[in-house]
Amino acid sequence: MKRNFLNYRIITGIALTLGLITSCSSDDSDPVDPNPTPTDSRWITVTGARMGETPGDGNGGTLVYAISTEDAKDPSVIVNPFENGFIAPSNRTARLQASEDGNTLFNISYAGDTGGNYTKYDVEGGNAYIQNGTAVNISQYVGTAPRWIKLFDGDQTGCAVYVDVADPTIDDNGTPNDVSDDTYVRTEATMGVVTLDLVDSKIKEVKEHLIPLSAEEEAAGYYISRIDMPTLNEAQDKLYIGARLSKVDPATTESDSDYEILGSKTIVLDYPSLENPTIITSTVGHGNTNGYRSINSWEYNGSVYQANQSDPEGSHILKIDANNQYDDSYVFNLDDALGIEGAYILAWRPAANGKAVIAYRHEGSAEGVAGAQGYFALADLNTRTAQLITDIPYDPDFYLFQYQGFVVQGTEIYLTEAPVGKNGNIYIVETESGDVTKGAQLENAEGSHFIGVF
């Protein structure tokens, strides 16, 4: 059964008007409850990425459609953003964020002529996304394809980052015409950081810093090639930025793909000044901490928990404590927890109880039409345990590499499940009990896929 979604503000207005008429027309009406039962209802934005040239590439545009939490839980409801949704401006898959109450959607266009444009929208149900304020272009500071997220400070601030990598620095040792005597020095990386006022849609701070590694690491050819996922600590005086390392061969300055994977690294900045960059290194996890499309690190219980990727021992959840250093006594390896090999965390989000849903793939994943098959696990940050969520159907074409968004409502986490080009459903995971509810139906389009809820 298809259901038409009415504008909740209109419904509220009608109800309020009728209530006023009734109260004025009769002295016998029931008294107004001074302590009404609170509602947990909110808008949930269902998001799909349309195929461009190949199935699952997501380059045909991002479409969004808003439903209530009640409808999200109703398996009779059918949602089709590809036919009925609002197009979120972006040349490639949009980078979206939502306010905690679901009433506002934030977007920074990714690549193309509008790349780097920040806009926000009032969410009014269905495909009614009404632009709020003017667009702000930040491309001059962080390029047309910036990585950005909001900072979970009450929907006040967003942060976009970018790294510019220079050509390798060579010392000719005083003999500029004799390349045989040249010495590789380093590959210089410059970081750009912008903070955005999400309330008034304006730029707050802009800073640029060199981000050098140790002298030994630089001499070996390592450099930071990508950064992403800025995260505030609990005190909101430090900003953590995830990093990916790459390497050149010092002998040739050509890209080196066969090298030792170093300990996972994070850039730490003072906040809100964005000054004094330092780099911290984990001895537990190895590989990258920048993630891809989804938020890669979350503050919980005074610490920041961060996923890593491309770890030779499988993805870890790493812990950064209030002293702004990695806690190397905290070891949470997804391979060990799930009994698999080559775990790769694609996206994840914890609820306030420290229990999280993790989207991942592993070496045993089937190769689907768009890439490796994905799965969801329920994890516990406190016990460092995880288990496959078996009540969600899995298909070889269930592709999660571009997955972006989960919605947390109390101890419930909402997610989308639909293979590339196939229909699926919203699922709601009750993290305390592990119970899974099958919700609204998701209608897909050829070669397209769903990238989450916001």
Automatic annotation (TrEMBL):
* Protein name per UniProt: Lipoprotein
Organism of this sequence:
Formosa agariphila (strain DSM 15362 / KCTC 12365 / LMG 23005 / KMM 3901 / M-2Alg 35-1)
